[in-house]
Design a protein that fits this description.
The protein is of the alpha+beta class. Helix content is 18%, strand content 26%. The structure holds N-oxalylglycine and manganese (II) ion.
């Protein structure tokens, strides 16, 4: 059977049917997937039973992989990658010998863009579920093209030529990264500066590019003004009507366009296990080109 694309019915997200990621994919199939990915921003593939090698092969169809990002301080230098796969990051609440085997714990991971604290954030991430809790731990996505296109004019005018600092010190679950200290003054937040609007290099569409709320700061503004603007634009960007949430089953795989969506994760009971393997696909430096 040929692959089939089944839209979520929300403002982003689609499922790909009739695909087995243990096998190599032909160019025709890949063209259909790339096209759907540009259109729906997040793709879901259910019911897989793949190895890390399969995950890496599938991810590499879309670009070069980047090794996993800087670990959490609480991991005390333990590798967060499975043996032999430095390009794969483990996302998990499970501990072994008193240390986490992966990142993000069991708490809520608040809305964010992956690695936006770097000059060149990743283009995409691919997340595969090996173990999932019976409830909680759903992952949500928000469409930043739509957030851009519906932004109230007053806010657009305030933000359009501004640059924002994307904090490197904390990850999306609020854990401090290795080698960083708590930020006390957001004008000194460590991390990359990016335009608040971003032109997608493939589609040419404009997207809101917020990255992460904690310790964010709009360069050049008094802190209170920056905070008020950020609160307003974040409230807009994460409106429920821009979102789609996925409830995981073992064997599900999601890939998202990290240039055009925000994502988050619900908390879950820490006495249950959640183990995900993730790859990160290389990306470019964000830019904004006014239409
Ligand atoms: C990530 C992430 C959410 C999740 O891997 O970047 O935010 O559902 N994960 O595990
Ligand atoms: Mn993430």
């Amino acid at each position: 059977m040929p692959i089939e694309i089944c839209p979520s019915g929300r403002e982003l997200g689609a499922e790909i049917l009739n695909i087995d990621l243990r096998e190599e994919l032909d160019t025709e199939t890949l063209d259909v997937i790339r096209q759907a990915w540009r259109e729906y921003l997040v793709l879901l593939i259910r019911g897989q039973d793949i190895s890390d090698g399969d995950l890496v092969r599938f991810s590499e169809y879309f670009g070069e992989l980047r090794t996993s990002p800087l670990g959490e301080a609480r991991m005390k230098g333990r590798s967060r990658s499975p043996d032999g796969f430095p390009q794969v990051a483990i996302i998990s609440n499970v501990t072994k010998d008193g240390l986490p085997i992966g990142s993000l714990g069991n708490g809520e991971a608040i809305w964010h863009t992956d690695m936006s604290y770097l000059e060149s954030p990743i283009m995409a991430a691919v997340l595969y579920a090996l173990e999932v809790p019976p409830s909680g731990g759903d992952t949500g996505f928000a469409n930043m093209y739509l957030a851009h296109d519906t932004l109230p004019e007053e806010l657009r005018a305030e933000l359009v030529d501004r640059v924002c600092i994307h904090d490197h010190s904390l990850n999306s679950a609020g854990f401090l990264r290795r080698g960083y200290e708590e930020v006390t003054d957001v004008t000194q937040t460590p991390g990359a500066r990016h335009p608040l609007f971003r032109t997608h290099p493939e589609t040419g569409r404009q997207a809101l590019f917020l990255g992460r709320r904690r310790n964010a700061y709009i360069s050049g503004l008094p802190v209170e003004e920056s905070e008020a603007l950020l609160d307003a634009v974040w409230a807009h960007a994460t409106k429920p009507e821009f979102t789609w949430h996925h409830k995981w089953n073992v064997g599900d795989l999601l890939m998202w366009d990290n240039r055009a969506v925000l994502h988050r994760r619900d908390s879950f009971d820490n006495s249950t296990r959640r183990v995900m393997h993730r790859t990160q696909i290389e990306g470019d430096k964000p830019f904004y080109q006014a239409a």
